[in-house]
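Hi support team,

I'm opening this ticket because the web form for multi-chain structure prediction keeps timing out on my end. I have pasted the exact lines I submitted so you can reproduce it. The total is 338 residues across two entries, so I didn't expect it to be a heavy job. Is there a limit I'm missing, or should I split the entries? Thanks in advance, R.K.
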Amino acid sequence: MTNRQAFLRGMKAGVPIALGYFAVSFSLGIAAKSVGLTPFQGFLASLLNSASAGEYALFSLIGAGASLIELFFVTLVANGRYLLMSCALGQKFSEDTPLIHRIGVGFYITDEIFSLSITTPGKLNPFLNYGAIAVAVPAWSVGTALGVIAGNILPASLVSALSVALYGMFIACFLPPAKQNRILLCAIPCCFFLSYIAFRMPVIGDLSEGTRAVILTVVIATILAVAFPLKDEAEEADI
Amino acid sequence: MSAYIYIIGMCVITSAIRILPLLILRRPIKNRFLRSFFYYVPYVTLSVMTFPAIVNATDSPVSGALAFAAGLILSWIGANMITVSAACCVVVFIAELFI
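Hello R.K., no limit was hit. The queue was backed up. Here is the completed structure from your submission:
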């Protein structure tokens, strides 16, 4: 795949991401407005952070006039899952990938762009990410600014419908590879079940979605890695 | 404190979280456990982030559950990402007309 093909492929995959982002960032803009941010500040927060839960936390910290120490710890909790994603994604890079591409890809590791790039077969071409970023990040940033300007223009039914776009995209990423792999096929329903239990449980259920995802991922992936270790390098080739 | 300080502060911390592992872990991991762990991470993360969140995202849990079912069926039979994603939205929109 040439860089140009990868970029175009990324742009195409970026369309559903952008749709979902637009809906989510619009409601994010409403939250930004409620703590007194300007449309430009909302735009900038989204352009620089691209993290839904993280930005919600950011806006509430601004509203509360929190300290930088609090900002530090809240950011670690809300965005900690990107550390896991970055470690996993790093394994898909060719060893000789230049620094600039490592930074370029890393800066925009979001749940959605991660899921797109990690499930594309073969070594990672950074231009796939750049294509998706070129479509999705403007939608995310402009959506936030528009949310600040005109929070209540979109009808509620449309916001509700668009809110599942990102989940649809997740499903299209994790399910197809499971058809060829019996372990994944059994593991995925277990993940759904455990995630539901965790959501219902006291204490863990009260944590943010991001933190819960980190805990569940570490626990379940550890169990899977112990019980069903990969046999050889070849087995990894399909992801 | 200016809002810009918060915005840029979060950007610095989040970028470190996102970028440092890519700079530090430059070689392929040889350890079998870690390789297996990182192989399973994306599937586990994406599944646990999808359910039950998709059911709670919509105005009514019924429409979210229908979208979840539609997404699973369509990706199982090989529909591409845009189709799956759009179909989930359409299912919610139509379902909520009747709820």
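A quick check on our side: Residues 31-98 of chain B form one domain. Let us know if the file doesn't open in your viewer.
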